[in-house]
Amino acid sequence: MSKVLIITTSLRAKSNSDVLAERLLAGAKDAGHDVEMISLKGKTIKFCIGCLACQKTQQCVLKDDAVAIAEKVKNADTLVFVTPIYYYEMSGQMKTLLDRMNPLYPSDYKFRKVYLLSVAAEDEEETPEKAISGMQGWVDCFEKAELVGSLFCGGINNPGEAIGKKEEQNEAYQFGKSLE
User: Fold this and answer.
1) Where are the alpha helices (DSSP H) in 31-159?
2) How many Å apart are CA 84 and CA 94, to the nearest integer?
3) Contact present, 40 and 7 (Cβ < 8 Å)
4) Is the pTM of this model over 0.70?
5) Which bin fits 54, alpha (ψ -120 to 50), beta or left (φ > 0)?
6) Phi, psi at residue 31, to the nearest 5°?
7) pLDDT tens digits for 21-58?
8) Which of 175, 178, 146 is nearest to 23 (CA)?
9) How far is 145 from 16, CA to CA, in rounded Å?
10) What is the DSSP letter of 103?
């Protein structure tokens, strides 16, 4: 049983990625994992200022919600990031959060497995490529971790539309069940 942390990054009400994240969470729980989900909705996450003080102190000089999220990321075995795809890339709030995880780089982080669930209005096969590449770039900075898998659910646009997408909900559930 792994300690799984799911981070949903959509700020939209009735978010499709949140609907699918709930199904992923159910699958992970049914597989026996200890699962926690954090939403970036309502969170204050400032931009990294690049001071690199965290590389010596393992603490960020900025005080906001990213500090507590980083602590949860550090102590999870498995991470799942959930993002809507905007302009063929991960959401800006997800990228901002990833930048703020810089204090973890020199730390004794526990996570080894990282996954990505992405959702977009577009449904072409190449739609998630840049988001996956961006996630891989972040994971590459953590030599003990690996990007194990990703799931893309395309063709979902309007708020709450994923509620009626049973096939995609099942895919998200099975993705959650398959987490290591």
Assistant:
1) 54-57, 65-75, 92-100, 129-140
2) 9
3) yes
4) yes
5) alpha
6) -80, -5
7) 999 999 999 999 999 999 999 999 999 999 999 999 99
8) 175
9) 28
10) G
Measure the CA–CA gap between 169 and 81, rounded to whole angstroms: 16
| All domains in the chain, ordered by first residue | 3-177 (3.40.50.360)
Provide the sign of the torsion angle of the four alpha carbons 50, 76, 174, 178, taken in this order: positive
pLDDT at 154: 97
Cα separation, 2 vs 62, whole angstroms: 30
CA angle (34 as vertex; 97, 57 as ends), nearest 5: 40
- pLDDT tens digits for range 133-148: 999 999 999 999 999 9
52 DSSP assignment: -
DSSP state of 62: S
Q: Which two tokens stand for residue 55?
A: 């590389």
The position carrying tokens 């609907």 is 19
- Does 1 have pLDDT greater than 90? no
> What letter represents residue 128's amino acid?
P
All residues at 6 or more sequence positions from 30 whose CB lies less than 8 Å from its CB, including other chains: 173, 176, 177
Paired sense of beta strands 78-84 and 34-39, if any: unpaired
